[in-house]
Specification:
mainly alpha, 229 residues
């Protein structure tokens, strides 16, 4: 594998998307700055709902826009045939796409998660018992993102990628609501102490394993392809 070509492909995508990334970063920072101003001025339950949308919205949208522009639209606009005419393999191409998309979304996700935990628990909007479930919620967002990114790379189809966004968005909400009502989870969500029982730990570990497995499986499947034009 020609490792030297991968950084060049990553740099190319970053240069193209740098303005978009900057705009979404600015929107996220603005949202983070607004939330403290709302605290104490509106009911806490309203702040929680508004805060969730204001924090996750820009991060999720930026992730999807990057997936579309750096991968799906390259195929739609026939930019990809030119790239693949260079001395680059499908595996190298895939690795480059992962190295631009995952770190950018990952940084957004980490910052948003940290801010959300501060507001939720530092300002006592949620009781400490909700820590395990909120952790599952944010990990669920990351897992959904890795699955959408994987689908976009494997199929490189606008229709299939859009369908995957809808499917994983609804699927994530469904399984998180299911988890919230599980007997080992539900009684402790509103408790005064964090309870990391075997079920909570198993769910978090499973989410992490799924995210890692999806990324590795995508690389493996792509490495078996000789061409995908």
């Amino acid at each position: 594998m020609n490792i030297s070509i991968v950084p060049q492909l990553v740099r190319k995508d970053f240069q193209i998307m740098s303005r978009t990334i900057f705009v979404f970063a600015l929107v996220s920072l603005t949202a983070i700055g607004i939330l403290p101003l709302l605290h104490g001025r509106i009911p806490n339950w309203v702040l929680v709902n508004i805060g969730f949308m204001m924090l996750l919205g820009p991060a999720a949208t930026c992730g999807i826009v990057l997936i579309m522009k750096t991968n799906v639209f390259e195929k739609e606009k026939s930019t990809q045939p030119f790239i693949m005419s260079l001395p680059v393999s499908v595996k190298e191409f895939t690795l480059a796409k992962l190295l631009i998309n995952l770190p950018v979304f990952g940084i957004f996700w980490l910052v948003v998660s940290a801010v959300a935990f501060y507001f939720a628990f530092g300002l006592k909007l949620f009781p400490p018992g909700a820590v395990p479930f909120v952790t599952m919620v944010f990990l669920g967002v990351f897992v959904a993102y890795t699955c959408i990114l994987s689908v976009s790379l494997l199929f490189q189809s606008l229709a299939i990628t859009v369908l995957s966004i809808m499917t994983f968005e609804l699927g994530t909400s469904a399984y998180l609501w299911t988890i919230a009502f599980l007997d080992p989870i539900a009684p402790y969500v509103y408790g005064s102490a964090m309870v990391w029982n075997s079920t909570a730990i198993a769910i978090v570990v499973t989410q992490v394993i799924i995210a890692i497995s999806v990324i590795l499986a995508t690389l493996h499947i792509q490495s078996t392809k000789r061409d995908f034009l």
